[in-house]
Amino acid sequence: MIQVSNHYISRFSVLLASIETVALLGVFFAGAAIRFPQWNGTISELLVSQFPGAITFTFIIIASMATLGMYQMEGRQDFEGILLRLLPSLALGFGLITLIFYLFPDLYFGRGLLAIVMLLALLLILSIRLFFFRWKGLDNLRYRALVLGTGTDAEELLNLADKSISLPNFRIAGFVPFDQETRCVPIEMIIPKTDSLISLAKQHNVSEIIVMAQERRGGTYPIQELLECRINGIKITDMVGFYEQEYGHLRMDALYPSWLVFGSGFKQGTLRTLIKRIFDITASLLLLIATLPVILLTALLILIEDGRPVFYRQERVGYAGKPYMVFKFRSMFNDAEKGGKPQWAVTDDPRVTRVGKVIRKLRIDELPQIINVLKGEMSFVGPRPERPHFVNILSAQVPYYNMRHSIKPGITGWAQVRYPYGASVEDAIEKLQYDLYYVKNHSLFLDFIILINTVGVVLLGKGSR
Predict the structure, then answer these.
(1) What pLDDT, in 10s, does the model give residues 260-295?
(2) Where does residue 333 rank: exposed (0-12), middle (13-18), buried (19+ CB within 10 A)?
(3) Residue 431 and residue 321 share a domain
C-alpha cells in the first residue's frame, strides 16, 4: 500500500492508473495522426498542437473512471465486468469533454478526433485490463506476510485473502501458532515455531508480520522476538492496523484504548480547521450554483405531490455532541412519525413519497444541508449526523461511538461511500468503523477521494434507501 496523508492507496491502483494515463495520451496522439493524415508539419509540431487536447482528454477519462470506481480493485474483472463499468465511464467522460468544449472553446479539438480517440480508448483500456488482471507478474508485486496466530481472526484473514473480490495486496506465507491456541486454518499452512521469528521471516522471505491475536498478556506473546524483527526492517502490524491499511476501516472488535492513544492520526489544529472551513464554503457554493435548477424543480414537485412544507428541520447531534437543526428536502408524508417515536428508515419505506423515492435515490434530499455547512454546523465531508434518540441508543451499546462527534458531521463521508445505507444498530457499528477511520485520518486528500466516490455513488444509485 502507498500512504498519502495518512490514507492508504493500493499500489495496484496506482500502477494501473499510471499505465492507463500513458496509454490514453498515446491513444490521443495516435487518433490525431489518423484524423489528420495530410498533416504538412513535423511530428513534433503535431504533438505540440494537440498537447492541450491530449491532457484534457486523458485527465477527464481517468477522472471519470475513478469516479465510477474503476480503481478500487473491486468487482468482476472479466470481460463483461470490465465492459459494464468502462462504458459508463467513457460515456461520463464524453459528456464532460463536450461540456468543456462549450465552456472553453479554445480546447475544442473536433468531433471527428473525439470519436476516434473514444473508440481507441475503449479498445485499449479493455485490452490493458484484461491483460493486467491476468498477468502472473502481479503476484510478485504483492508483499509476503507471516501471520502470527491460527485462531478465528487468522481464519477470517485467510478467507479475505482467498475469496475477496478485490485484488489483495498481500500473500500469506503461512501461520505461526501460539501455544495452546485453537487452530482454525488449514494445517498445511501452519509453520511450526521451531526457530525464532526473525529466522522464520528470513526463511520464508516475508516483509511483514501480521499479529492476529487480541490477547497480549502472558508468556506466550513473543514481544522480544517481534522487536527483533522490527529493528531488522520487517514491518509489524497488529489486527487493527492491518484492517486500517488494507480495508479502510478500524476493526471495532479489536480496537483498544492504548492503540488510539499512542497511534498516529487524530490531528487537529487552527490551520487545518481554517483550510477545511475554506474548502467547505467553496465546495458548498459551487454545489449550490451547479444544482440550483435541480433544487427549484425538486421544491416544485414536492409541493405538487404533498403540499407544504418543502423542507423539514430535524434535530441532529453535531460537533462535540451539540444538537443542531438539519435542513433536508421532505421525502416522507407529513404524518410519517405521527406516533412521535423516531424510526430507522428501511428499504422501500411506505412512509416515503413518490418524489421522495427519486430524490433519495439520487441523494437530492441532502442538498439543503448546504445551509448547515454555510452556517458552520456541518462540513462538506464528515460522519453522517444522527438524531439524538439514536445517538443515545448507540452510545450505550457501541464503544467509541461518541468519537465521531470530535469533528463536524458532513453531507457526505467515508462511511457513506464505503458502506450501504444503515438502518440498525449492527449497521451503525459497521459504519462506525469507517467513520473512525475518517476521524483518525481525515485530510483534504481524503476529502477529495470521498467527493470523487460520492459522484459515483450518486450516478450509480448505490446505498440509497
Answers:
(1) 877 777 877 788 889 899 999 999 999 999 999 999
(2) middle
(3) yes
